[in-house]
Write a structure and sequence with these properties.
InterPro entries: Class_I_gatase-like, DJ-1/PfpI, Prot/Nucl_acid_deglycase. This protein is of the alpha/beta class. The protein is built from seven helices and eleven strands.
């Protein structure tokens, strides 16, 4: 049975650091490409949505062989991104209706720390997706988008077991000291039950219909978990 999956992707190309400088970013290649490839090969339909319908920017760092794992993997990722037509014609996030989709997926990169964390349309979609029982998958920095689900200081995600890019991993990429805040700290403050695995290793958490992954290496495994539910 073919499912229709909504990919909610950051629309920004930078992340504003504590000192006001703009750190170039976007979405992380592997976090889009690995699930996109898995879902496409399984015959599912994908629609990309971004704030304002902006064509999303890939974080160029994520296509470096040192970051991707090897030159061969970097090349594979580039090929997937180049052939993903949906990336070039995203719909406006404001126009996305949950009823039209069987599952929702948020890839990370530092981009969501700039736009999705305070995007009201994304916040409404996340609240609706969580309540719907449909699979909702969010990876790496994208769980920062959960911050937009606060209403009067409370979020329906409070109490859910969630993972995301950790403070230790932010230290590892040398950005924690420069960050205005981190995904881990903000989620803990929001009241989720934050859990984490080993740095850089695949780590996924499932709590009811919420699927979260810790880092880029977790995107593929997260997609596999989703596929078993969709099939």
């Amino acid at each position: 049975m073919m499912a229709k999956i909504l990919f909610v992707v950051t629309g920004t190309s930078y992340w504003t650091l504590k000192d006001g400088t703009r750190h170039p970013t976007g979405y992380w290649a592997e976090e889009f490409a690995a699930p996109y490839d898995a879902f496409s090969k399984a015959g599912h339909e994908i629609v990309v949505a971004t704030p304002g319908g902006t064509v999303p920017y890939v974080d160029v760092m994520s296509l470096r062989p040192s970051m991707a794992g090897s030159a061969e993997i970097a090349e594979q990722l580039e090929t997937i991104l180049r052939t993903a037509e949906e990336l070039r014609r995203p719909i406006q996030l404001a126009a996305a209706r949950l009823d039209d989709y069987d599952a929702v997926y948020y890839p990370g990169g530092h981009g969501p720390m700039e736009d999705l964390w305070r995007d009201a349309d994304s916040g409404r979609l996340l609240i609706a997706a969580l309540a719907s029982g449909k699979p909702l998958a969010i990876v790496c920095h994208a769980p920062a988008a959960i911050l937009a689900t606060r209403r009067d200081g409370k979020s329906p995600f409070a109490g859910y077991r969630v993972t995301a890019f950790t403070n230790d991993e932010e230290d590892g990429v040398g950005l924690r000291a420069m960050a205005p805040w981190t995904a881990e700290d903000a989620l803990v403050t929001l009241g989720v039950d934050f859990v984490k695995g080993e740095v850089w290793k695949p780590f996924t958490v499932v709590d009811r219909n919420l699927y979260t992954g810790q880092n880029p290496a977790s995107a593929g495994p997260l997609a596999e978990k989703l596929l078993t539910v969709l099939d």
